């Protein structure tokens, strides 16, 4: 015990720096788990958590048997998987292009321009999309009309809404994701590139046999994190972009929970769905981590 106290005192500065992060997780992540029991109760704010009657798994049954369950799950998975499939390759290509260019000024300029959309809120992005995709005066529809084509209601059509969601996410987050891959590329030993150049390897061969294998660890980590949150299709984005005509393809689990839990005051149902998402995410990330460690030798833990 004395040895532990001595260690704490010796590294007190580091522990003090760690303390705010620990308090954040304790207050906003672990303490709320105690109140997650309202998923198994008919929660009534007047009665409190302990005073509300116990209903067991009733809210889970209600959600699974809901008319919208299959539609919500399908929309959530389709949008999430499409974002992963469409989002990672451009980020990898951008990172490799930035790493391979010899013009530092151009590299910094492209990196800055591609990185800036990450800091825009989805409300601002919606305004940009409306200016470009509006069926009445959007730039893209004006271009189509100039060639005698009919305007397309991109944001209110069930055929185009999901592609708009995915592509806008790719445009907004590609620069941010590229920073992670670029950091991995910069950590590769430059001696490998020098040796490859001496042996006569072309730039493409250096990318293929040095850069891409060097990205494996970060790529696996990014995939694991995305798989663990695959039921989070992007609440803020969908909430801003969707409307009643595209509910059939745009309504996801989180937006449905918002309407049921916040607008209709069904707090227990919303909590039950949150626990369901957490359980599915835990199973997926553990399974994906096991497969990644077995097949590639890289894993999250």
UniProtKB/TrEMBL annotation:
SUPFAM superfamilies documented for this protein: MetI-like (SSF161098)
UniProt signal peptide: none
Sorted UniProt keywords: Cell membrane, Membrane, Sugar transport, Transmembrane, Transmembrane helix, Transport
ABC transmembrane type-1 domain residues: 73-288
Domain of life of the native organism: Bacteria
InterPro entries documented for this protein: MetI-like, MetI-like_sf, UgpAE/MalFG_permease
Protein's UniProt name: Putative multiple-sugar transport system permease YteP
